[in-house]
Design brief:
- The chain is globular.
- The chain folds into 3 domains: about 80 residues, Winged helix-like DNA-binding domain superfamily/Winged helix DNA-binding domain (Arc Repressor Mutant, subunit A, Orthogonal Bundle); about 90 residues, D-Maltodextrin-Binding Protein, domain 2 (3-Layer(aba) Sandwich); about 90 residues, 3-Layer(aba) Sandwich (D-Maltodextrin-Binding Protein, domain 2), CATH 3.40.190.10.
- It is of the alpha/beta class and about 280 residues long.
- The protein is about 40% helix and about 25% strand.
Length: about 280
């Protein structure tokens, strides 16, 4: 009996989230696919690993034991891969980053990686998740950090960041007027959650501007065209975080997947670990 790491990570995702739907969202898989894989594991083990209910799933005693084994196998495999990596790695790696990440959180991780492995050449590109997924599918990238929903395969791991509401310091919205919001033209999960949270909070809003890139988003916010959500590091000096202002709900969390082809090279695995460290 053997299980590949993706199957074990799927089981761990279900155990950690408590529902098939949340695990499916995390893994960028359908709920039916996750359910089928779970049934496969239970059939091979001849054990019921989860108790199902209308509220989700909970681990049985056998499930708790299998979870411990699954985590150990994943950890041991990753330790083995790290242990086999030559600390004097040599080669070239093509890294694709979601645009916002390329100018906020991840440059530090990339710089640290280069200090540890000065003989590695990094070819960096940034774009939206849809374009990054196309480039990855066409073999133009070795490792990509982007939104999971755009990819056909599940990510090898996840990183997530808390976003903040922000706006120009000069923005002044009358309490009787709809709140202008700056949106990306191409939607994503956290923008969808942002819009949904405004509706749930009963906040009347309108589109102040639609943008196609991060520089355009920053320009629109600085110009006072509305409020928006950004990484805290990306808030321009002439803007401010406005969490709680205008009765705004909590800003969403942005979740990204780290994608690499099956059987990634030690070079790819080492860079992935550096990127995960900043989550």
């Amino acid at each position: 009996m053997s299980y590949d790491l993706r199957l074990l990570r799927m089981f761990v995702a279900v155990a950690e989230t408590g529902t098939l739907s949340k695990a499916a969202d995390r893994l960028a898989r359908t709920q039916a696919a996750v359910s089928m894989q779970l049934q496969r594991i239970e059939k091979e083990l001849d054990s019921e690993l989860f108790t199902r209910s209308s509220r989700g799933v909970s681990l049985t005693e056998a499930g708790e034991a299998f979870l411990a084994y699954a985590r150990r196998v994943i950890a041991l495999t990753e330790d083995m891969q790290r242990g086999l990596v030559d600390k004097k790695l040599v080669g070239r790696i093509r890294l694709g980053l979601f645009e916002d990440l390329a100018v906020t959180r991840l440059p530090g991780a990339i710089a640290q990686f280069r200090q540890q492995h000065p003989s590695v050449e990094i070819e960096l590109s940034s774009s939206n998740s849809a374009q990054l997924a196309r480039s990855f599918d066409e073999g133009q990238s070795d490792i990509v950090v982007a939104h999971p929903a755009r990819f056909a395969l599940p990510p090898m791991s996840f990183i997530s960041y808390q976003l903040v509401w922000c706006a120009s310091r000069l923005l002044d919205v009358d309490e009787n007027d709809p709140l202008p919001v700056v949106l990306f033209e191409t939607s994503c999960s956290w923008q969808d959650r942002m819009v949904a949270s405004l509706a749930e909070a009963g906040i009347a809003w309108t589109v102040g501007c639609r943008v196609k890139s991060l520089p355009a988003m920053l320009s629109a916010l600085r110009g006072g065209l509305g409020v928006g959500v950004l990484f805290a590091e990306a808030v321009p000096p002439d803007c401010e975080t406005i969490n709680g202002k205008y009765n705004l709900p909590p800003a969403p969390v942005a979740e990204f997947g780290i994608f690499a082809a099956d059987d990634p090279s030690p070079l790819v695995m080492e860079l992935a670990k550096s990127l995960e460290a900043l989550s």
